[in-house]
Amino acid sequence: MSSTFTETEPLATTTAQPLAVVTGASSGIGLELAKRFVRASYDLIIVSENEQKLTAAAQQLMQLDASRDIELVATDLSTSDGVNELYDAILKLGRPVDVLAANAGVGVSGEFAAETDLDEEIALINLNVTSQVHLIKLVSRDMVERGSGDILITSSIAGLLPGPRMAVYAASKAFLRSFGQAIRNELKDKGVNVTVLMPGPTDTEFFERADMLDTKVAQGDKQDPAEVAEAAFAALRDRDDHVVPGARNKLQAGMAKFLSDEAQTKLHGAQTARRE
């Protein structure tokens, strides 16, 4: 079963050196999560499709603690082959995964019927949804078998509100929120904790990649990804079911509970509308 921990100790470990797997680790929240695990004396497997950025991320992590073992897996998790490649790399290490941070994701913006590209949206579903289910299925089985482990699933407060001009993205994050809570209930008595991370707007490359730089949400205040990672780590430590980092994001998440679906959609749509 999982052990308790202090600020300088690993969350839960079955070996002398705990191991964390972080997907989407080349930048943004994923990289900051990896840094937080390094500072807590975890060895790492970091994953991204971009090998060059992944190598640069590994160099940053080694500067924090050169004694850590860091494995790099450059693969496309939007494909089944990519997920299997990552899982094969885990098995080759011959070590249990103490924490899986399932963080990889992508956004697509624009009006669904008139502007967005179907292939890009299918790729989003493959990465944000299908690959998460695939990878978590494989890793969670191993965790259940030994009776310990932690899984962090990166959803979003966008998963609380239907998202005009981000319809498929918001739906994918709603899926992850529901999925995470469901499997948490199934695994909680088997020694495996599941925590859902639900950040709000964060200062990462997300808005540029999603072609959203001219939207209200992209031009507004955003949270430091290091703060998001710290909140996620604390939630894992406390075995919380979910975490919404930041007071303003918590307020928005709380307000959403009292709004109709139509009002929620209007609120979110005002944030994702493009500015003239």
Task: Name the features.
Rossmann fold, globular, 7-stranded parallel sheet, single chain, disordered N terminus, 12% strand, 276 residues, 7 strands, alpha/beta
Quick synopsis:
It is globular, with a radius of gyration of 18 Å.
Ordered list of secondary-structure elements with their pairings:
Elements (H helix, E strand, L loop, with lengths): L18 E5 L4 H12 L3 E6 L2 H14 L5 E5 L5 H14 L5 E4 L15 H29 L2 E6 L12 H21 L4 E6 L8 H4 L6 H4 L5 H13 L4 E2 L3 H10 L4 H12 L4
Parallel strand pairs: 1-2, 1-4, 2-3, 4-5, 5-6, 6-7
Verbal overview:
The protein has 276 residues and is an alpha/beta fold. It is 48% helix and 12% strand. It contains ten helices and seven strands. It has helices at 28-39, 51-64, 80-93, 118-146, 167-187, 206-209, 216-219, 225-237, 247-256, 261-272; strands spanning 19-23, 43-48, 70-74, 99-102, 149-154, 192-197, 242-243. A seven-stranded parallel beta sheet has the order 3-2-1-4-5-6-7, with helices on both faces. The protein is globular. The relative contact order is 0.13.
